[in-house]
Amino acid sequence: FGKANNTFVKYFPSSTLMFFNVGVKGEGLYNLLSENKEFRNTISIAKADEVKELFGSFNGDISAGLINVTRNIAPTFMLYADVKNGNALEALYKNKQSLGMKRGEDIIQLGKDEYVYKTKGMNIFFGIKDKQMYATNDELLYKNVGKAADKSIKDAPYASDMKGKNIFVAINADAILDLTVVKMVAGFGGQEVKTYIELANKVSYLSMSSEGEISEIDLCLKDKDVNALKQIVDFAKQFAGM
Question: Taking the model in full, what pTM does it have?
Answer without folding.
Answer: 0.82
